[in-house]
Amino acid sequence: HLDEGAFLDHYKLQNLNNNSTLISNTEFRLEKDAELVSNFVTLNGGMLRNNTRVLFNGPHGNASIYGLYLMDRRQHIDNHVYVDHAATDCTSVEMFKGILDENSTGVFNGHVFVHKDAQKTNAVQSNRNILLTDTARIYSRPFLEIYADDVKCSHGSTTGQLDTEAMFYLMQRGIGTESARMLLMFAFANEIVGKISIPELRF
What we know:
The chain contains two helices and eleven strands, in the order E-E-E-E-E-E-E-E-E-E-E-H-H. By secondary structure, the chain is mainly beta.
């Protein structure tokens, strides 16, 4: 519960074994002028699901929810984010990025709900994924439900593979295949990693 004018910098790091199963629920309630920055980083785990709910209960609130997941083998990651804009003039940003290898699977389900009286809402959703194999799978569903008429809301989802032209460019300059792959994956993930304010977590 973030009271009036409060600020929270929140982190959840998941790095478990392949046999683990974890379902977590995290809820944030923001009062007037409250600000939230939340980071979900998943590096390993068998079957994982993160349920996140954000409620704007007062005006002029800001919430940034970031997620990064790196999955391989037969691992599965579920990220479900529900942002409830119940107050006017609030801003929410969701940005989740994933890299999936081998037979791993992932789900992103983002839902922004804007109430009728929540005018001047600004909400952005983004989910971007890289599949390193033909057997990796991602199911992405960013979703906006808007009942106010003075809003700025957008959402988007992209899924692809590593850029072959960028790989060729790096390899032409003497960088090996695996090193080139790692550089491109690091560049892709760095947009999220760069938002982490704790140096020890910037692996």
